Amino acid sequence: MLRIAITEILLFVAPFVAFGLYLRFGRGIDRMLAGWSTRAFAVCTLVALLLVALSLYLLEWENRGPTQGRYVPPTWQNGVLVPGHIE
């Protein structure tokens, strides 16, 4: 679960870091802060939100189990715990 949270945070921050690196190395240092316009910040925010939404969808899709059948809860059989499953 922690790995998923770290991945989502990194995906959210990635566009901002990329734009900051562009400002730092693509332009002069003295103009770095002047480059953060409202439009650029809005675009970075939108891209970050789209990446987070995409990552959430892909993580959910990857871990999806069977959707039809009867759920059998976890049980003890001969001293061994049999995990819950769908039949």
Write a concise keyword list for the protein shown above.
87 residues, mainly alpha, two-stranded antiparallel ribbon, 4 strands, 57% helix
Outline the structure in words.
The chain is mainly α and 87 residues long. It has one domain (2-86). The chain is built from two helices and four strands, in the order H-H-E-E-E-E. The chain has a two-stranded antiparallel ribbon with strand order 1-4. The chain has a two-stranded antiparallel ribbon with strand order 2-3. Strand 2 and strand 3 (80-82) form a beta hairpin. Helix 1 (2-26) packs antiparallel against helix 2. The radius of gyration is 22 Å and the shape is elongated. It starts with a helix and ends with a strand. 1% of the residues are buried. InterPro entries: DUF6111. Keywords: Membrane, Transmembrane, Transmembrane helix. The chain crosses the membrane at residues 6-25, 37-59. This is DUF6111 family protein.
Spell out the blueprint of helices and strands.
Layout: H1 2-26, H2 38-62, E1 71-72, E2 75-77, E3 80-82, E4 85-86
Transmembrane segments: 6-25, 37-59
Keywords: Membrane, Transmembrane, Transmembrane helix
Protein name: DUF6111 family protein
What is the 3D form?
A: elongated
Rounded mean pLDDT score = 81
Give the strand order, joined by hyphens, for the main sheet.
Answer: 1-4
Biggest sheet features: 2 strands, antiparallel
Oligomer: single chain
Overall SS class? mainly alpha
Report strand %: 5-15%
Radius of gyration, in angstroms, nearest whole number: 22 Å
The first-to-last residue Cα distance is 27 Å
Would you identify the regions where 5 or more consecutive residues have pLDDT less than 50?
A: none
Given the structure, what is the number of helices? 2
Total strands: the figure is: 4
